[in-house]
């Protein structure tokens, strides 16, 4: 359970799992609770709290990936679509999806000088949104769900906005697919790690 797993151990549980089915080891209410926890507690620049989410279950989840299939069929060259058709069907075969957005209107609540500063550093929004995604993904993984993160926007953005009455200020950033795992994580159970020495440099550390 997410509340009982030490943080560093919880991080290790979070993996990309593509083989999912339409079952869940936990209730829909608990899934929503995990998403709410991420949206509420994830850090954001100047506490702007601009991340938004829509959680889709059942027929609503399937509708999302029907949109993804149709829009991909229309926009991708046939040989490319042939490579992605099975993957999109796999997302549809899962239990649900969390859609993550950025709300550009949220910054309007900040003082004008901070609004100007945020406009100069749009990457800050992406950093915060990524942390929301990471928290939700890690929490769901530690509740026994498999997840994978997708980015079919802007291909599906218009269809999503029209289907779920998404405010114009919300910009789609990611789609977190979840369901009962039916296969190993991407890369295998025993994940291979690159050496840390060239990736982490430390200066001034006490012995």
Relevant terms:
207 residues, globular, alpha+beta, 5 strands, 7 helices, five-stranded antiparallel beta sheet
Description:
It is built from 7 helices and 5 strands. It is α+β, with helices and mostly antiparallel strands and 207 residues long. Strands 1, 2, 3, 4 and 5 form a 5-stranded antiparallel sheet that branches. The mean pLDDT is 97.
Short description:
By secondary structure, the protein is α+β, with helices and mostly antiparallel strands.
List the helices and strands and how they pair.
Layout: H1 7-13, E1 20-21, H2 28-41, E2 51-57, H3 58-75, H4 78-92, E3 96-103, H5 112-120, H6 123-141, E4 146-150, H7 157-163, E5 170-181
Antiparallel strand pairs: 1-5, 2-3, 3-5, 4-5
Q: Specify the biggest β-sheet.
A: 5 strands, antiparallel
Output the helix-strand order.
Answer: HEHEHHEHHEHE
Task: Show unreliable segments.
Answer: none
Helix content: 40-55%
Beta fraction: 15-25%
Count of DSSP strands: 5
- Structural class comes to alpha+beta
Count helical runs: 7
Shape assignment: globular
Radius of gyration equals: 19 Å
Measured distance between first and last alpha carbons: 36 Å
The overall pLDDT average reads 97
């Amino acid at each position: 359970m997410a509340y009982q797993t030490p943080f560093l151990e919880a991080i290790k549980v979070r993996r990309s799992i593509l083989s999912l089915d339409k079952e869940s080891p936990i209730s829909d209410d608990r899934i929503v609770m995990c998403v709410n926890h991420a949206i509420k507690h994830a850090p954001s620049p100047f506490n702007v709290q601009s991340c938004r989410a829509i959680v889709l279950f059942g027929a609503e989840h399937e509708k999302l990936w029907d949109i993804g299939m149709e829009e991909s069929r229309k926009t991708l060259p046939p040989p490319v679509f042939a490579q992605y058709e099975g993957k999109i069907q796999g997302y549809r075969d899962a239990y649900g999806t969390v859609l993550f957005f950025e709300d550009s209107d949220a910054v309007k609540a900040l003082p004008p000088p901070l609004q100007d500063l945020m406009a100069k550093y749009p990457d800050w929004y992406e950093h915060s949104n990524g942390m929301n995604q990471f928290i939700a993904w890690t929490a769901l993984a530690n509740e026994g769900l498999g997840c994978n993160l997708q980015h079919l926007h802007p291909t599906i953005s218009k269809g999503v906005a029209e289907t779920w009455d998404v405010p114009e200020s919300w910009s789609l950033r990611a789609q977190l697919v979840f369901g009962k795992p039916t296969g190993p994580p991407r890369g295998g159970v025993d994940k291979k790690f690159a050496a840390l020495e060239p990736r982490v440099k430390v200066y001034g550390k006490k012995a």
